[in-house]
User: Which sequence fits this backbone?
């Protein structure tokens, strides 16, 4: 059995598929070195020779992203000591202990790019590069903000926003076959990354980002799109000219919503999701929601019970 595995390995390493993957990995490394030179230098700074640095970059950046790697990032509910131990183990290549030290099921909502190790930054870049391969400049936008404002970019929000954007992109493309959508209204937009990604993807549609205040992260992303994004119109036209920010309560966005609108709400809390969906339905608009939390009292009345103090489900 061992001989067969070794033989299969030798055949794989000598095959065209492996050779093609190796070429693709080197190409990704070249892009990483060009687009994120500071992170590339940080990742390989412990290596002495040029060959060792190249091997490090190819081993970390060259391989494709896997969603199981989320366990390698800061998780919610883990103490600072255990987090530090996990980071040290990860830096030393001890990924098994690192996963145990960071054992949890929810990404930390407060961890920013500034908290990441060189390895984690490189893998975050690899995720963005692969997830948005049709528009590689979008990875430049994220890296640009992460490089200049590392404390503004929360790791959990990057993963959530990119995944939400990809789902919404497919949703809007599919809906376009059946009805016209001229406007996208992103309610409770927060940092605004989802709405801005949609505005960049659909430059012919007006995008209204709504929140009670314009966050510093929103402006940082806007500036990054104007710097690294591709212009769709005249050279003098801002990349994000189709974006409007409305500093208001969600209810005040009703005037922007009609039958040719898609309402989006990503990571809305408590009754925000319900109110946004009802507002969209009242105006015959499309809607898409990715809730932050779904309290049973609001969404499942009569389907749950509360036990008195001192009682449990076995009583």
Assistant:
């Amino acid at each position: 059995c061992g001989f067969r595995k070794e033989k299969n390995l030798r055949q794989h390493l000598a095959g065209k598929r492996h050779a093609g993957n190796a070429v693709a990995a080197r190409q990704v490394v070249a892009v990483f070195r060009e687009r994120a030179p500071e992170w590339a230098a940080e990742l390989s700074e412990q290596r002495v020779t040029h060959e060792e640095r190249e091997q490090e970059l190819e081993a970390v950046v060259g391989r494709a992203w896997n969603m199981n790697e989320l366990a390698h990032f800061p998780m919610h509910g883990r103490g600072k000591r255990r987090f530090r131990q996990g980071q040290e183990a990860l830096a030393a290549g001890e990924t098994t202990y690192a996963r145990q030290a960071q054992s949890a099921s929810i990404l930390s909502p407060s961890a920013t790019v500034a908290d990441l190790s060189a390895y984690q930054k490189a893998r975050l870049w690899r995720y963005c590069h692969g997830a948005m391969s049709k528009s590689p400049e979008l990875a430049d936008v994220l890296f640009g903000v992460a490089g200049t404002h590392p404390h503004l970019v929360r790791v959990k929000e990057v993963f959530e926003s990119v995944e939400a954007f990809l789902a919404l992109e497919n949703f809007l493309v599919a809906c376009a076959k059946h009805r016209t959508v001229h406007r996208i209204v992103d309610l409770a937009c927060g940092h605004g990354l989802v709405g801005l990604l949609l505005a960049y993807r659909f430059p012919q549609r007006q995008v209204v980002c709504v929140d009670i205040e314009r966050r510093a992260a929103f402006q940082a992303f806007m500036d990054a799109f104007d710097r690294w994004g591709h212009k769709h119109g005249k050279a003098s036209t801002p990349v994000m000219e189709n974006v409007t920010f409305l500093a208001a309560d969600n209810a005040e966005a009703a005037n922007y919503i009609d039958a040719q609108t898609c309402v989006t709400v990503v990571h809305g809390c408590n009754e925000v999701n319900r109110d946004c969906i009802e507002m969209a339905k009242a105006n015959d608009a499309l809607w898409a929601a990715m809730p932050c939390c779904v309290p049973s009292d609001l969404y499942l009345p009569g389907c749950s019970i509360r036990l008195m103090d001192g009682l449990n489900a076995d009583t």
About this structure: The chain has a mean pLDDT of 84. The longest helix spans residues 155-175.
